[in-house]
Amino acid sequence: MKLHINGENVEVPSSISSVTELLAHFELQDKVVIVELNHDILQKENHAQTNVSDGDRIEIVHFVGGG
Amino acid sequence: MLNIGPYSFHSRLMLGTGKYPDFDIQKQAVDVSGTEILTFSVRRMNIFEPSQPNFLEKIEVEKFKLLPNTAGASTAEEAVRIAKLAKASGLCDMIKVEVIGDAKTLLPDPVETLKATEELLAEGFIVLPYTSDDVLLAKRLQDLGVHAIMPGASPIGSGQGIINPLNLSFIIEQATVPVIVDAGIGTPSDAAIAMEMGADGVLLNTAVSGAKDPVKMAQAMKLGIEAGRLGYEAGRIPKKRYATASSPTEGLSTV
Questions:
Q1: What class has domain B2-234?
Q2: Do residue A32 and residue B42 have CB atoms under 8 angstroms apart?
Q3: Do A64 and B91 touch (CB under 8 A)?
């Protein structure tokens, strides 16, 4: 499955069906991350029941140092 | 106590989390500063490097209120999106609206700041807009119902201190919400002056993170802010043109 993540084309196993599984694939399950799927910002509690599919545009962001 | 929206704070220092030499020094600086509010930015994650350390993992997050900023936004639309991303973390509902209008001076775009602020208030955020020292803009933001106003002392990271104390004093005088002096603070005395003028708090980052000894400077800023606040509450003496003796003029023993 091809996804467009943070501006890059990324190939991921097609066994991945949810946002939770996608985060686990990148070993981000324990990180504070925020996911935007096709311009929809997802609440954390909805990651498990939100599906990802071929061609989706995904932004994965987090908090970094700033003033 | 500093009250912002539903929250109360003992410390009047808000500390930025950018540009420290390393996380260890940063953590020590945060600890000695006594701050209860830490600012952050929202950026894309490098998904191929999950092990990269993050400062949030180095601190007890629940001990602090997180104040994400919308830095990187140059329009209201971008700022609102960043704010919503930050809130979706489930970790915070405060937002520092920062809409930069010019890359060289990093001065805020007043029109876009106002638009973003209005929208985020409607969305239920606790909104703290970073603004210039424009008195009427501060008033307009206040009229929208912001939870604090954050006028800059001077350009971000410049360390120039308070370059327009008159405007800042007007903003403080008319304020019905807390005034947090944000950006441009260079020294503990800058922070103290802001507090002596009646500001409710100070937000700074580079002055600490860029100091030769950030931990020591964090402590100095804490003390500067506390001294300034105490001085404000105590009430300064009026300035006089000529001297007034502090020693009695009567009973002088002469030879």
A1: alpha beta
A2: no
A3: no
